[in-house]
Specification:
heterodimer, A: 386 residues, mainly beta, Methylamine Dehydrogenase, Chain H, four-stranded antiparallel beta sheet, 3 helices, 50% strand, globular, B: 230 residues, mainly alpha, 2 domains, 8% strand, WD repeat (chain A), nucleus (chain A), WD40_rpt (chain A), CIAO1/Cia1 (chain A), WD40_PAC1 (chain A)
Chain lengths: 386, 230
C-alpha cells in the first residue's frame, strides 16, 4: 500500500496546528490566528465554507474540536481563552440533512453562495496562559482544556453549549499539558505532557481523579489517541513523543494484572529503576488502574513526533518534525500464534515539502477513509491510502 | 545595570572572531588561472577525494576552468568563440543548479556571533558564547531537502539565568535568516550549565518558541539583541 496525495489546500498564512473533522466539515486552527472551515465531499472535493471572526483570538489558535453530533466548535488559543462557536441558524433537534437543505435554500436567496456562518457563542476564561488543546467527551457533555499552566480543566455544559461550569481542575502534571483526548465511548480522558508522561483520568462519583500515570517516553509527549474499538473491555491508547517513538498502551482488566508486570519488564528492559518509580507513583491512587506499555512501534521518525491518530480501520498514523507520515498496522506474529505485532504499512516523506507536520487525523468522508495533515507551510493536505 | 550576573567575562576583540578566509584564497586561485601550481595541487586533491568521473567535484572543477577560460578569452578574442564557450557554460551551470549554495558553519556563525548579549554591551561572539567549532551544519544545498543546524552554546557562567533568552535570540535570528528547509537545534554545551536539560528542552520545544514569539515584551528584548546583527 502507498499514500497518495488526494488534495492540497493552502488555508493559512502560517503554521497549521490543529484539524478536526465531523459531519463533512474540517476545521483548522493556525498561528495566523484564524480558524477556517472547509467542507470535504467524496473524491476529496474541498470548498471553503467559513472563516471565523479573526478578532476573537489575539494569538495562535492552537486547537479546534467539533462537539460530537453538533455544529458547535471549540477553539483554544495561546491568548489563554477558549471560544465556542455555533452555526447561526441551527435549530435544536433538527436533523443535519434537512438542516443543510434549509440552510442552502436560505443562502441561495441571499448573496452568501455556499456560505456557512459560525457565530460566537461563548468565551471561556480560566487558564493562566497558553491553551494547548481542547477536546469534547464522546457524548458532548464535557469539554476538557489544558494549558502551559500545567493544569487540565473539565467543563460541563448544557445542550445549547452557551454556559460552561468548571467541574474539575486537575493539577498533577509537573509541566505543560500538551494535549487532551477522550475515549470514543467512555468517560475516560488522557492528557499528554512536557513532563514526559501521560495521565489517565476517570470519573469516580463525579470526582475526576488520575487513575494511572503512563511512564516510558523519554521526552515530551505531544499527542495521544484512543483505539476506536467497540469492545470496552479492551482499552488501548497510542502516543507520540519528542523521543521519536510511538507507543501503544493497554489498560489491564482485573484478571490480567498479575501477568502484566512481566510484559512491562520485557519492553522496558534496562530501565528497571524507572519502572519501580512508576509502581510507587501509581500506588498513591486508591482507584488506580493498571496500564502497560504493550508495544513500541517500529521506529521510523528521526525527529519529534507531533501527532498520532488511531483510525477506525485499526491503523495508527504518526507525523512530525521530520515531515514523514507513517502508517502502522497490527498483524499476527508469524512465530507465535494469537500474538499480534505492529508493522509499518507504508511511509510517505516530505508530506509538507520541507516543512514540519503538526497534525495528522484519519477522517471518514461518507465512508471513504482519508488522512488529513496540517503543516508549517499553512497547507492542509488530504491523503488516500491505496 | 550595575550588578551583572557575570561581572567579568572573558572578551574577544571583534577582529579576533573567525571570518571566512577562503574568499581570499579563491580570489588568488581565480586571478592566477588554472596554470597556477597551487591551483593544480588543489585540483588533484579534490579529485583524490572523489574519483568518479561523474562526480560533482569533477564537474565543478570543469566549470571553474571554463569560467577562467571565458574570462581571459572575452578580453582578447572573437565573439564567436566566446559564444560557444558561454553556451557550454550555461549547460554546466544548469547541471548543478539544484545544489548551488549549501550553507556552512561560517555562515551560521556570521548570523549569530553578532547578536548582542542581553546583559553586556558585547556580542555573543566576543563572549565566546557562540563558537565556530560548536556549529554543525548538514546541508546539501538542495532546496527540496530538509537540512539541519546544530549549535552548542557556552553560557559565560554555569548558573546564567539568561541562557534561555540567549538561545531564543539565536533561534529567532536563524529562523528569520535561514531558508525554511532548516531544522534548528540549539543546545547548551555539555557541563556548562546547572539546568542544562531543562534549558535544552525549552529551547527546542516548537510550541513554547512559537508562544514566546507572540509575547511582545519578550520579542522586544530579542529585537534589541538582534539590532547589532550585520
Amino acid at each position: 500500500m502507498k499514500l497518495e496525495l488526494a488534495r492540497c489546500i493552502k488555508l493559512h498564512e502560517d503554521k497549521v496546528w490543529s484539524l478536526d473533522f465531523s459531519r463533512g466539515l474540517l476545521a483548522s486552527g493556525s498561528t495566523d490566528r484564524r480558524t477556517k472551515i472547509v467542507s470535504i465531499k467524496p473524491e476529496a472535493q474541498v470548498t471553503l465554507v467559513d472563516e471565523l471572526d479573526d478578532s476573537t483570538h489575539s494569538k495562535s489558535v492552537r486547537s479546534v474540536a467539533w462537539r460530537p453530533g453538533t455544529s458547535i466548535l471549540a477553539t483554544g488559543s495561546f491568548d489563554t481563552t477558549v471560544s465556542i462557536w455555533t452555526r447561526e441558524e441551527t435549530e435544536e433537534g433538527e436533523e443535519y440533512d434537512s438542516e443543510e437543505d434549509e440552510a442552502s435554500r436560505e443562502y441561495s436567496n441571499s448573496n452568501h453562495d455556499n456560505k456557512y456562518v459560525m457565530e460566537l457563542l461563548a468565551i471561556i476564561e480560566g487558564h493562566e496562559n497558553e491553551v494547548k488543546s481542547v477536546a469534547w467527551s464522546y457524548d458532548g457533555s464535557l469539554l476538557a482544556t489544558c494549558a502551559r499552566d500545567k493544569s487540565v480543566w473539565i467543563w460541563e455544559t448544557d445542550e445549547i453549549g452557551e454556559e460552561y461550569e468548571c467541574i474539575s481542575v486537575l493539577q498533577e502534571h509537573s509541566q505543560d499539558v500538551k494535549n487532551v483526548v477522550w475515549h470514543p465511548s467512555l468517560p475516560i480522558l488522557a492528557s499528554s505532557s512536557y513532563d514526559d508522561t501521560i495521565r489517565i483520568w476517570t470519573d469516580y462519583d463525579d470526582d475526576w481523579e488520575c487513575s494511572a500515570v503512563l511512564n516510558g517516553h523519554k521526552g515530551t509527549v505531544w499527542s495521544s489517541d484512543f483505539e476506536k474499538s467497540n469492545n470496552n473491555s479492551n482499552i488501548r491508547l497510542c502516543s507520540g513523543s519528542d523521543d521519536c517513538t510511538v507507543r501503544v498502551w493497554k489498560k489491564l482488566n482485573k484478571g490480567e494484572v498479575g501477568t502484566s508486570v512481566k510484559g512491562t519488564d520485557d519492553i522496558n528492559d534496562g530501565n528497571a529503576n524507572e519502572e519501580e518509580d512508576e509502581e510507587e507513583e501509581n500506588d498513591i491512587y486508591d482507584n488506580d488502574d493498571k496500564w502497560i506499555c504493550e508495544a513500541i512501534l517500529p521506529q521510523e521518525h528521526t525527529r519529534s513526533i507531533y501527532s498520532v491518530s488511531w483510525g477506525p480501520n485499526g491503523m495508527i498514523a504518526s507525523a512530525g518534525s521530520d515531515g514523514k507520515l507513517v502508517i502502522y498496522h497490527e498483524v499476527e506474529d508469524k512465530n507465535e500464534k494469537n500474538k499480534m505485532r505492529w508493522e509499518v504499512l507504508c511511509i510517505k516523506e516530505l508530506i509538507h515539502g520541507i516543512y514540519e507536520c503538526n497534525i495528522v487525523k484519519w477522517i471518514d468522508v461518507e465512508g471513504e477513509l482519508l488522512l488529513a495533515t496540517g503543516g508549517d507551510d499553512g497547507y492542509v493536505n488530504l491523503w488516500k491510502l491505496i | 545595570m550595575s550588578d551583572y550576573l557575570n561581572e567579568n567575562p572573558d572578551v574577544l576583540e571583534t577582529n579576533q572572531l573567525p571570518t571566512r578566509e577562503e574568499d581570499d584564497e579563491l580570489n588568488n586561485y581565480l586571478s592566477n588561472g588554472i596554470q597556477n601550481k597551487n591551483g593544480l595541487e588543489r585540483r588533484k586533491l579534490l579529485l583524490k577525494m572523489d574519483r568518479s568521473l561523474e562526480s560533482q567535484v569533477l564537474k565543478d572543477v570543469e566549470l571553474l576552468d571554463r569560467l577562467l577560460l571565458l574570462n581571459s578569452i572575452t578580453e582578447s578574442t572573437s565573439d564567436e568563440e566566446s559564444d560557444e564557450n558561454l553556451k557550454s557554460l550555461t549547460q554546466s551551470t544548469h547541471l548543478i543548479q539544484d545544489t548551488i549554495d549549501p550553507i556552512d558553519a561560517q555562515e551560521i556563525y556570521d548570523l549569530t556571533a553578532y547578536i548582542q548579549d542581553p546583559e553586556h554591551p558585547l556580542t555573543l561572539g566576543q563572549l565566546s558564547i557562540v563558537n565556530l567549532e560548536d556549529i554543525q551544519v548538514h546541508d546539501t544545498g538542495n532546496q527540496k531537502e530538509m537540512a539541519e543546524v546544530v549549535i552548542h552554546i557556552t553560557p559565560t557562567i554555569t548558573h546564567c539565568s539568561l541562557a534561555t533568552l540567549i538561545g531564543l535570540g539565536i533561534r529567532v535570528r536563524l529562523e528569520r535568516a535561514l531558508p525554511p528547509r532548516f531544522r534548528i537545534t540549539i543546545l547548551l554545551k555539555k557541563g556548562t550549565h546547572q539546568s542544562e536539560n531543562q534549558v535544552n528542552k525549552q529551547l527546542n520545544d516548537k510550541e513554547r518558541v512559537t508562544a514566546a514569539c507572540e509575547n511582545e515584551q519578550l520579542l522586544n528584548v530579542v529585537s534589541n539583541m538582534l539590532s547589532t546583527c550585520k
